[in-house]
Write a structure and sequence with these properties.
The structure is a homodimer.
Chain A lengths: L1 H17 L4 H17 L1 H17 L4 H7 L3 H16 L7 E6 L5 E8 L2 E6 L4 H12 L3 E5 L5 H17 L7 E3 L5 H7 L8 E5 L2 H10 L12 E5 L5 H13 L8 E7 H16 L4 E4 L1 H6 L4 E2 L2 H4 L7 E7 L2 H11 L4 E5 L3 H10 L4 E6 L16 E3 L7 E3 L5 E12 L3
Parallel strand pairs in A: 3-4, 3-6, 4-5, 7-8, 7-12, 8-11, 9-10, 9-11, 12-13
Antiparallel strand pairs in A: 1-2, 2-16, 14-15
């Protein structure tokens, strides 16, 4: 498709410049982009108002309208995000593992940008600035495909950033927006092998599944979290209740929220009434198996479908198990490889859970809500990878880079 | 497809055992598998004879027949390969970057197996034992789909390894062969999301392209190498000739062989006759642009297609450029991201080439033929990745693993 080929060629051109750009110039460009967003906030807000008017006319649900909406504060938050990324260390250029081989070759691994990153996301215009900032700092050109409902907002944000880049003597094609709502264009974007090095979908499970299924470009799968808390025997049950309450209710719509409680049969009789009482404050619905229902009468029956469900709502599934082995098997069967916690006092059980659970983040005695780039100390994140290739867990700047081998020789040939 | 689902479920079962298996038991199983291959060599040779007879009847080309053929020595080499993998260090279990966060959480990164690895390859039965050995040592279950022409040989090899695993009290499903020649089964294998964590194609460009296009499981692209040697001004021209001769002719059918020569115009007049003279020993055909032809009369005209071609044969394309900038642009346009060399005496040119060339391995003054797990000091390799995600360049045992975050808490919840 000629339109996409042009975008791809321009991204490749920008990539060549970014690949070797000094950290200082990148940071200056990020700060300039932050200034332009602030200076052009009236234009951005006006564009957002167009999107909002369209969305209201279509009868968009209030939650989605809120995601789409921009305010002066939200624009300031985007600008502040770019400022923070400018302050972070440059991940590019470090050479590690440099070793001399017996034949005298000096071989090392140099950290370099990925190249061209594609991001497909829904109608949250703030992702536009955030994704640009992280990709740019890591030396990548970025091609953005946001939700059609946010098209005017995204155009205004990308235009402001582009002017900032031009002002700094850098190619504005370092960030490009696919501004066609045509589904064929989106389908073509997922097949831009040779132009796009990696595609990162950000959004709900449906979007991610589509990108995984359709894309021929390498994808980093992010997001879906069917996170479990397993309350062991012996465990500090009041600690367990506090962790469960935090992980389930502090924010329900996020991927690191708890969706399922697994309880050892020896503590179910005491713990489930405690758990139900504190979750009742937030009107959380509990759906359990027969033994859970026997232990706590407010629990309603769960179906097979509940075990695999990411509710993103005030609902929790509850499973009673006979031992830690059954708990681990249940979690490994139904989890999405995101975040899992054991609450226990037993040393061997803690170690076994850490060893055997197959997930991006495995916790002992802490809330699953900590799986987050900021909480892990990485600064901003582009998403949380739930796949095993390249990056697993919160993805910071380093995960937006790759390495290449560099080899210093003196005329060596292979015998 | 029920057949593939069964294979997937069995692989998942084996994966659970391998995930936490001690290094000592893995090594013992590898040594036992080596013994079984030796002890059952008559069975394997007999099975191979069946494949060879079929292949001869079909009129298979001599080169392919040679790849398919097994001998006592080749079986010994497979057994020796497993023994060497047993002697290598265990990549699994290391915990790095363990840090205490301000809230007291202790967060670290633990190296763990990928899970289930799928390998799709052509009719080289030795890949069967090699791929099993590397995947198993890294703690992975492996599902193999070899070329249909090698089916009997592969069945015999997998059966011998399976008996060795059972003997060691381990699940023989740690290695499974897809033994249906049905193309629909192969297509289904590439879409086993949920069962297969990564698919690695090993073989020619056509096979790799198909897997990249068709697979919905994450793929690691390996192999294709359109490798360049750029002879700069100033350069030691006799060193350049030696490196070119080695990279082009030491073995022509491999991915790290040189396929294209790029020469600075200031040295073309002296270097091209030298290069042509030494390559004439091996009857290498040179296809060049007009300026290359002007400098050396044995050079025939190249077409646009030649610049992007991986010949795997005694043919070399030759391009004359006006400076290092044009050389880098040419190489980055036509290369496949494998291995590229500059021959130079100039410090700044060497550094610029290392910085700006976009490839898995970038050399100064050495043959491209060194891009190889053994030559890099990794021991055996599963292939050479030419993509940027997860692994780039020769892939050893470590590249067959991933990491997970492990977090030790004391009841922390998120505010």
């Amino acid at each position: 498709m000629e339109y996409l080929e042009q975008i791809g060629r321009r991204a490749k051109g920008a990539e060549t410049v970014l690949r070797t750009l000094d950290g200082g110039r990148k940071d200056q460009a990020l700060l300039t982009a932050a200034e332009y967003l602030r200076a052009e906030s009236a234009l951005v807000l006006q564009a957002n108002e167009e999107d909002m008017a369209q969305a209201r006319k279509k009868g968009m649900a209030p939650g989605l309208l809120d995601r789409l909406s921009l305010t002066q504060e939200r624009i300031e938050a985007m600008a502040e995000g770019l400022t923070q990324v400018a302050a972070a260390g440059d991940p590019v250029g470090e050479v590690t593992e440099m070793k001399k081989r017996p034949n005298g070759l000096l071989i090392g691994k140099k950290r370099v940008p990925l190249g061209v990153v594609g991001i497909i996301y829904e109608s949250r215009p703030n992702v536009t600035a955030d994704a640009f900032g992280l990709c740019f700092k890591a030396g990548n050109a970025v091609i953005l495909k946001g939700g059609s409902d946010a098209l005017s907002s995204n155009r205004a944000i990308v235009a402001a950033i582009g002017r900032a880049l031009s002002d700094c003597g850098l190619p504005k094609e370092a960030v490009q927006l696919i501004d066609s709502p045509d589904r064929l264009v989106t389908a073509g974007f997922m097949k831009m092998n040779g132009y796009v090095d990696v595609l990162i979908p950000r959004g709900g499970a449906g979007l991610i599944r589509t990108v995984v299924q359709e894309s021929t470009v390498p994808v980093i799968e992010t997001g879906t979290g069917n996170c479990h808390i397993y309350v062991d025997d012996p465990a500090d049950l009041s600690m367990a209740a506090k962790i469960l309450y935090n992980a389930k209710t502090q924010r329900t719509g996020v991927c690191n929220a708890c969706e399922s409680l697994v309880v050892h049969e020896a503590v179910a009789g005491r713990f489930l009434p405690m758990a139900a009482a504190c979750l009742a404050e937030k009107k959380v619905e509990l759906r359990g198996d027969a033994r859970a229902m026997a232990a706590e009468k407010s629990i309603v029956p769960a179906t097979e479908e509940d075990w695999g469900k990411e509710y993103l709502d005030y609902i929790l599934s509850v499973k009673v198990v006979k031992d830690i082995g059954e708990a681990i098997a249940h979690i490994n069967r139904y989890n999405t490889g995101h975040s899992e916690t054991i609450v226990t006092k037993d040393y061997a059980h803690a170690q076994r859970f850490l060893d055997e659970i197959d997930a991006a983040a495995v916790y002992v005695n802490a809330s699953t809500r900590f799986t987050d780039g900021g909480e892990f100390g990485f600064g901003a994140e582009i998403g949380i990878s739930t796949q095993k290739l390249h990056a697993r867990g919160p993805m910071g700047l380093k995960e937006l880079t790759t390495t290449k081998y560099i080899i210093y020789g003196e005329g060596q040939v292979r015998e």
